[in-house]
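Technical note accompanying the year-one report. For the benefit of new consortium partners, we illustrate the data format agreed upon in the data management plan: each record pairs a sequence with a structure-token string. No post-processing was applied to the example shown here.
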Amino acid sequence: MKRLLALLLTICILAMCCGCDLFGGNSSKPASSSKPDSSTQSEEETPADEIIDDSSDNSSTKTTPAGASKKTKTGTVETDGDFGKSPLDLQEDESESLKTKDQTVEWGTSVSTLDTPWDKETLPHPKTSSDAEATAMRNKVLNSGNTEEYYTITGTKYYISPKGNDANDGKSPATAFRTTDVLAASKFGSNLKPGDAVLFERGGVWRLTEGVKCADGVIYGSYGTGEKPAFYGSAENYADKKYWTASNLKNVWKAEIKAIDIAIMVFDHGDIVGVKTKNGLLALAKNGDYYYNRLTSTLYIFCDKGNPGKVYKDIEAGAHISAFNASYKSGIKLDNLKIKYFAHMAVNFHSVDDSAVTNCETGFIGGAYQSDTTRYGNAIQMWQGCDGHIVENCWVYQVYDTGISPQGNAIKPEVRNKQGTHEEDYKNITYRGNLIEYCAMSIEIWHGNHDDGLGGSWEYTDGVFENIHIDHNISRLAGYGWSSMPGQRPDPHGEHLIFYKHVFPFASEFYIEDNIFDIAYCWICRWDFNDRYAEDTNDATRKKIDGVICPIVNKLGVFTIRNNTYYHGESRNNGINWYGTQKTGSGQATLESLVGAFDASPTKVVWVTS
């Protein structure tokens, strides 16, 4: 009888431990990722017999956790923590799953630097050669003028200021609104019309717990003086001892933060970037390591110097939201904004025509879980096609996945274009004059594949890419950012350009020219499709979905790649993954040969030695 009772007690204890998700357990398996390039964590879950009870707190210091009985500026956040959804599903659900009474607004100056002393802990890289050009481009972005210098505003101008009041009419700086909450359609947002502009005062920091849903034909920009108006994906600056209490594990501190997930943590604006674990508390071993229990809304971090709220001047805990979102709209412009610490996307557009992102700064983006243990997150993304999209004079840095990207999924013929939009057509896109640094991938061209029907692994896409210009950008140190930190991302990336296995039989007028590509951890370009699509003239080989016979894709075909500058040195792959063959270089002559097959007329090719 005693044995039976002991067995039943053991089963109950194990069931309670598994149910509380204390150490990363998951009771259900979410849908698998639809995107092939996202990473998958390789750590195993903590065994049940290693679980340590942290339900009680013997600390003598008790503080009120954020989002609990204390009335915070962001109000209460409610979420069901659903991870088994596509990027579009998450985008559409954000306003429903995150309910806030108000948006936090802070007044003050934030740091606009690329201070990353922690990169010595990640991957040592060869010296860069584009420092002067990058500095000039970065300064050009940071010192750009206000929005009315670049765009003509034909409608009503509305102003939002940290010193404003949501009871105002918002039609002048003196009667400005205060929060982004007024932009919700259920409040003031329904009054916005094409041609209107929403202008945020420089120097302000808006901490979002719900992304802004952009309205048709509206410009979102800046006014005033000082630094660009900033939008942070962390509900608070958690560098305050009141948020943290000691757990029962040595050097592990906890805070209550309600969110879908906390997927990026940045301390002192980049002095330390946290490493996220799903293994639970026992995996926390060094300063910055953290674990978020989404069922109990508890964030745990390792800090051996005492209460982290006293140790650091700034702690940003980026939630799984995007800053600016839009679906099936047109004419949206984002200008002169600073967007940081969002674990999903900075700009998340879906089939938005005639849009622009200009003079913006985006940094420390991504790391959210897409499904199961797969993490993702791009800075500026156009999902599922568009007609007209410009990204120009932006500074994009420290992104978990891709800096700038048009991408989407293949759509069955019977449902294609049911929205009356360009679901698989990417037309009139320009990426020009941008500085892209420390991203896992700088620029990614991706659209869902269809199997070739020949039993092979090489695939093609029926996405239409027409009139695409990628020019005068600087891509540097691809793959040397925060996502490459040990334990952060198990599938290391580092490409300036990435096309994966895609064949683009329906592409035309595609230009990649006058760019600087400076140091990549993996490849200058990764484009690994099979030569048979380039040379096989057999109609049966080229017959694809819907009975369409694909055009022959030549080695460069419709892709005009010219006049680019290449700096490369010893790295993980040392060269270019081009047409399915990993081609590596070991010096100047080899690199020139590899680049020559990709860019027939490069401006400069330099093998860099440390």
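Partners are asked to follow this layout when depositing records. The first helix runs from residue 2 to 20.
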